[in-house]
């Protein structure tokens, strides 16, 4: 069983940066890929970025060039570096397997970008 705990969110000014971390209680190497997702108020949860077991990354068009996903298999962590933030990035951010597994959703971490 894998448990995922997100951290690192907060309030940041537009143009600023935030680094999110996802600590995994089990081995993420067993999962084919990991993803960062977000849910803004009144919107559906969406995939922001994903990284495969071999390190191949993919990003949503809205964050391409600004966000970077990485993972440390030894530490069982997945990180999302977010730069050049804007108000549209305000959301609760979650990590999960890709594709997501319902049982793995955690509490998420809130990122609020002030303009």
Topology summary:
Elements (H helix, E strand, L loop, with lengths): L3 E4 L2 E4 L4 E7 L8 E7 L6 E7 L4 E3 L7 E6 L4 E6 L8 E7 L11 E6 L1
Parallel strand pairs: 2-10
Antiparallel strand pairs: 1-3, 3-8, 4-5, 4-9, 5-6, 7-8, 9-10
Number of strands: 10
Tally of contiguous helical segments: 0
Q: List the helices and strands in order.
A: EEEEEEEEEE
Estimated structural class: mainly beta
Spatially, the strands of the biggest sheet line up as 2-10-9-4-5-6
How far apart lie the N and C ends?
Answer: 40 Å
- The level of helicity is under 10%
Biggest pleated-sheet summary: 6 strands, mixed
Quaternary state, please?
Answer: single chain
Shape: globular
Mean pLDDT: 94
Strand content: over 45%
What Rg, in angstroms, do the CA atoms define?
Answer: 13 Å
- The residue ranges in which pLDDT falls below 50 over 5 or more consecutive positions are none
Word description of this protein:
By secondary structure, the protein is an all-beta fold. Helix content is 0%, strand content 50%. It has no helices and 10 strands. The chain has strands spanning 4-7, 10-13, 18-24, 33-39, 46-52, 57-59, 67-72, 77-82, 91-97, 109-114. Strand 5 and strand 6 form a beta hairpin. The chain starts with a strand and ends with a strand. The mean pLDDT is 94.
What tags apply to this protein structure?
115 residues; mainly beta; six-stranded mixed sheet; four-stranded antiparallel sheet; globular
């Amino acid at each position: 069983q894998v448990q995922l705990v997100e951290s690192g969110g907060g309030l940041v000014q537009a143009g600023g940066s935030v680094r999110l971390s996802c600590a995994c209680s089990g081995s993420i190497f067993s999962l084919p890929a990991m993803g960062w997702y977000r849910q803004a108020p009144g919107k559906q949860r969406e995939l922001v970025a994903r990284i495969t077991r071999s390190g191949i990354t993919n990003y949503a068009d809205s964050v391409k060039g600004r966000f970077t996903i990485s993972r440390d298999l030894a530490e069982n962590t997945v990180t999302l570096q977010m730069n050049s933030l804007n108000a549209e990035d305000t959301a609760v951010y979650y990590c999960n397997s890709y594709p997501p597994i319902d049982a793995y959703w955690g509490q998420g971490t809130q990122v609020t970008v002030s303009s």
